[in-house]
């Protein structure tokens, strides 16, 4: 049977707007990503699925690109008999493991102190889980990793692309260069590399912006005809978008470096200057972006950090990025 791919777009309550899901007709019916857990999204999904001639009961498997709520929520509306497949690092998020969330809370409480964050902000940590009400609560039935084929879809290969999420993967059809890219490549916005606690067995915290840049460069190894995205339109010129994203990254890093040249800064002080209008409302988003910029500058030898009491400050080294 010739595979066909259909896009389904559903609304979300998030600033990013609508999210894309994909139905692949092959030897089985596969749903790639699963929207957000709202009744509005569920009704929209069912209507568009009906227009393709299917109902939710016809879905044989769900494969997720990553664990964020706007890509997994409708799994809770589907039969528990439908297997959900993703990267192993997604499981603790999609099953909403309480032990993990307690560890996450402890990790961020300590990490944010080291970033020089005010205690008033650290007291907000329990609110970090608010968006998870839009996510599913279902363990993975199977996992995929770099180089695997999707079950029942032998031409679709898994490529690991950590950065936006530690669990992020994309799917590449080798026969024609089509990619389903989740949030890795978005045409009009740059995905936020989000801070996460270390995975089981890891001792160092992830450095998501460095990972994201590496995952962007990784795309240049593949002959990608076009990439179907998690939000918005297809990307038809992947090399040009990769170069644009990396260039913008260097420009933002230069901006941060200019701040630090004025004197030592904590992560939180940089965050307040970078995002003065939104850091209170989008605290973890802006802190993730800030620590990413500082990781980038440190990796390039442009800044160094030193400990001062409970927190670290970053100082400029006289080099350019």
UniProtKB/TrEMBL annotation:
Gene3D superfamilies in UniProt: Ribonuclease Z/Hydroxyacylglutathione hydrolase-like (3.60.15.10)
One GO molecular function term of this record is: hydrolase activity
Q: Which InterPro entries match?
A: Metallo-B-lactamas, RibonucZ/Hydroxyglut_hydro, Sec-metab_biosynth-thioest
Q: Which CDD domains match?
A: TTHA1429-like_MBL-fold
Describe the location of the Metallo-beta-lactamase domain by residue ranges.
Answer: 18-231
Q: Does the keyword Isomerase apply?
A: no
Among Pfam families, the record links this protein to: Lactamase_B
Its keywords, alphabetically, are:
Hydrolase
What residue intervals traverse the membrane? none
Asked if Hydrolase is a keyword of the record, the answer is yes
Q: What is this protein called?
A: Putative hydrolase
